[in-house]
Amino acid sequence: MAKRSAPEVNAGSMADIAFLLLIFFLVTTTIPKDSGINRKLPPMEPPNEDQVVIKQKNIFTVLINGNDQLLVEDELMELKDLRKAAIEFLDNGGTTDAEGNKCDYCNGKKDLTSSDHPDKAIISLKSERETSYKTYISVQNELVAAYNDLRNIRALEIGPKKGFRDMDFVKMEKNFRDANFVGNKEKMKEVIDQIRKEYPEKLSEVQ
Q: In whole angstroms, what separates CA 87 from the centre of its chain?
C-alpha cells in the first residue's frame, strides 16, 4: 500500500496574521508617561542692590524627613492638619505689608508672632533625599490647596459685587479660559488679578 504524504501547512497567511496583530497592538497600546508637578516659576525680579531682610515670623517652614514625617515649624504634624496650619499663617494679618497697608480682608488671629501680611508670608518647603515621592506630592498639594481655599473665600466675598455670584476663584479661572464663556471676561480678569495680588503664592522649595 502506498504511503500518503502529510498535507503541508501554508505558512504564508500566518505571517500576514502576525503582522496584522503587531500593528493592532502598536496602535492600541498606550505608553505611560511620567508626570511632574505643574509649577509656574515666578518672573525674574529686577536687580536690586539693597538686600531684602525677611523676618523669621514671615517664614512658614515645612520639612519632610527621610521617614516621611512632617515637621512644621520644628514640630511634628499630621498631613491632614497641614492645610489648616498654612491657612492660619497666610491669613494671619499681624501688621502691615511692605507699603504699610493693613490687611483689611484677612480673617486671621492678628497674632504679632506670626506673619505680618499675606504679601510678606512665605512657605518654605524642604525635603530630604530619602523622602518618598508620594509624600512630597501630597504635601505640595496641601500647601497649594491652602492658597486656593483662601482665594476661593475671597472670590465669594468680592465676586457678587462685580457681577460674579456663586463663583469661587477656581471656577473663575476655568471660565476665563473657556472660549465659550459669555460673561464679562475683562472684569473677571480684574477680579482674578486682585485676588492673586491679595494672596500671592509664595512657595519656596529649599534644596
A: 15
Count the residues in the chain.
207
Task: Read off the pLDDT band of 41 (50, 70, 90).
Answer: very low
Dihedral in degrees, nearest 10, Cα atoms 49, 54, 59, 65: 60
Q: Which grid cell sits at 172?
A: 473663575
pLDDT surpassing 80 at residue 45: no
pLDDT tens digit sequence for 93-145 = 988 877 788 899 999 999 999 999 999 999 999 999 899 999 999 999 999 99
Q: Which of 104, 195, 107 is nearest to 147 (CA)?
A: 195
Whole-number average pLDDT of the chain: 85
| Burial zone of 120 (CB within 10 Å; 0-12 exposed, 13-18 middle, 19+ buried) | buried
Q: How confident is the model at residue 51 (pLDDT cuts 50, 70, 90)?
A: low
Cα–Cα distance measured from residue 54 to residue 42, given in angstroms and rounded to the nearest whole number = 18
Angle between helix axes 169-177 and 185-198 (nearest 10 degrees) is 140
